[in-house]
Amino acid sequence: MVSPDLLLVTCVYEKADGPRAAKDLYVGPYFARLRRYVDRQAKPWFILSGEHGLIQPEEWLAPYDRALPDTPAWYQEAWGLWVTTRLSLLAGDLAGRVVEIHASRHYVDQVAPHLAAAGATVRVPLAGVPWDDHLDWYDEYERRQSAYD
What we know:
By secondary structure, the protein is an alpha/beta fold.
């Protein structure tokens, strides 16, 4: 399988109690596994946020409560284009690049068509994996990778 060029990970509801770099704002077991996964990939990564669109890991944010599924349809539609436009500004031309997304179907459905229209190949490794099994998927990935270390 071709290694991704860029990784997009979901924000989570659990957040630290004050402003900090986005990579440290999101807390909890799910985001911890996402962080370990993207760190192993050693590729540029970004966070998908219903409130802020696309976030660089080092950007400072205050805690917030907006989730994309809780927003109106017009916002969600604009959000997908906003995320893709910002990604191309931060990472360059998306044509021919593999973008791997680790987020719920709701986030994927809003951004994937825009990424594909920009020429990116979109990969969603956990597509079809029930949400309750995601933590197990990351744990198994980590076990397999540790065997190669």
